[in-house]
Amino acid sequence: MAEEAILGYLEKNEEISDSGEFASQRGLDHNEIVNVVKSLHGFRLVDAQDIKRERWVLTDEGKLYAATGSPEVQLFLAIPPGGISRDELQKKVDPSVFKIGCAQASKNKWVEIKQLVSRKVEHVEDKVKELLIRIQDGEMVEQEEIDSFKRRKLIMPQTWKGYSVRKGPNYAPKRKKAATDLTREHLQRGDWKDLDFKEYNFNAKGQPAEGGHLHPLLKMRKQLQMIFLQMGFEEMPTNNFIESSFWNFDALFQPQQHPARDSHDTFFLQAPSTTRELPEDYVERVKHVHESGGYGSRGYGYDWKRDEANKNLLRTHTTAVSSRMLYALAQKPFAPKKYFSIDRVFRNEAVDRTHLAEFHQIEGLICDRGLTLGDLIGVLYDFFSRLGMSKLRFKPAYNPYTEPSMEIFSYHEGFRKWVEIGNSGMFRPEMLLPMGLPEDVRVIAWGLSLERPTMILYGIDNIRDLFGHKVDLDLIKRNPICRIGID
Ligand code: PHE
């Protein structure tokens, strides 16, 4: 209605000079006119200029008198021609009419108020009521009257806002609804030629993607793979969760009584419970180094049992793969290698906020002649700083297969403390020499869990939200597609 009125009027007329008048002449609601003008202005169908006017509107009291008459007139009319006692009069009218009416009527010299209240004039006119109605209708009244009503708090100022309206650059006598889609029907009917299409809003946010979320561990693994590849490492084949105790422990010079080999710490397989094949001559050399040493070592001095080495298990670390790879390397003329792996390992552990029985290990190793502990420290700085962890500390540690061994700590800016992030060392001669690697070949290696840096970098505090049967799908949907910034 309002929109048609405005556009139709402008078709024949230059301008709507005052939206307020326009509305009242047509009996339209001015608020509605204002809304329509704003919308038409937004689409540039019209140009609109603000108009502001200070005007007087009636207060509640003013409205009351405009409707029922002023108190002074009401009071006057309540006085009979012969007069009335004050008390009688007070009973006859409203308390506010009595109070204000007495004051105003005696000021106007309409009445005399003593014990007896009597009229001093025969007839009065309710000019107050009349003027208030005129103000209510937006008519002009004398400044004197305005001042007096202001004093009596019958009127108050109000800023009135409206518009003057002219045709805009996109003016049309009727607004065309902009089409959002080109449909089959448009093409069939041929009316696409006359359509106005809604412009693209390139600032609108897109629909959130509902599917295809990458798990944080996958994103972290990808990032680590890229780091290793950029550093010139090759990925080791880790596609065997089942391993023999031999490659998981014995080849790594881990004695058979070692507590890690207990079923409390390791998942052993019931079927098939043992491995069928091991390289026999190498097994002999491993047995010998455990029992009585060699290569400058005294060994452990115990009775090494083949049965124990044959037991199948779920690999407890990816270092089992490293031992296979180093053995394979030793079977060929020596060439230096840089290997890495990122894959699943299993430990028979109690599950809590930071531990799972299944998790992932990241492992890196470099095999070359004459490597030193300095090389290990250097490569660790290189590797971890690519992950955004450039403050490192090392603590001497023990692993059966490395000497020296170091735990790796990184300073966490958010937690404001040093956190343990990994383990490292130089593989022992008792491990490397029975494999057949040349004597001057050294292997530096490190390992860490994939979950730990993922939790730190993605701000996840319960490992069970990240991995396992209780994984929080919402968390996986919510976490960013890629992380910008490292800490
Ligand atoms: N295998 C070790 C672990 O399970 C990690 C490690 C790898 C340590 C290589 C030293 C060298 O924690």
UniProtKB/TrEMBL annotation:
Cofactor(s) demanded: Mg(2+)
Domain Aminoacyl-transfer RNA synthetases class-II family profile, residue spans: 219-480
Enzyme class (EC, first level): ligase
Keyword set, alphabetical order: Aminoacyl-tRNA synthetase, ATP-binding, Cytoplasm, Ligase, Magnesium, Metal-binding, Nucleotide-binding, Protein biosynthesis
Gene3D superfamilies: 1.10.10.2320, 1.10.10.2330, 3.30.1370.240, Bira Bifunctional Protein, Domain 2
Location(s), subcellular: Cytoplasm
Keyword Isomerase belongs to the record: no
InterPro entries linked: aa-tRNA-synth_II, aa-tRNA-synth_II/BPL/LPL, Phe-tRNA-synth_IIc_asu, Phenylalanyl-tRNA_Synthase, PheRS_DBD1, PheRS_DBD3
Cited SUPFAM superfamilies: Class II aaRS and biotin synthetases (SSF55681)
Gene Ontology annotations for the cellular component aspect, listed alphabetically: cytosol; phenylalanine-tRNA ligase complex
Catalytic activity: tRNA(Phe) + L-phenylalanine + ATP = L-phenylalanyl-tRNA(Phe) + AMP + diphosphate + H(+)
GO biological process: phenylalanyl-tRNA aminoacylation
Gene Ontology MF annotations: ATP binding; metal ion binding; phenylalanine-tRNA ligase activity; tRNA binding
EC number, as in UniProt: 6.1.1.20
Record bears the keyword Metal-binding: yes
PROSITE patterns: AA_TRNA_LIGASE_II
Subunit structure: Tetramer of two alpha and two beta subunits.
Family: Belongs to the class-II aminoacyl-tRNA synthetase family. Phe-tRNA synthetase alpha subunit type 2 subfamily.
Record-given protein name: phenylalanine--tRNA ligase
Organism: Nepenthes gracilis (Slender pitcher plant)
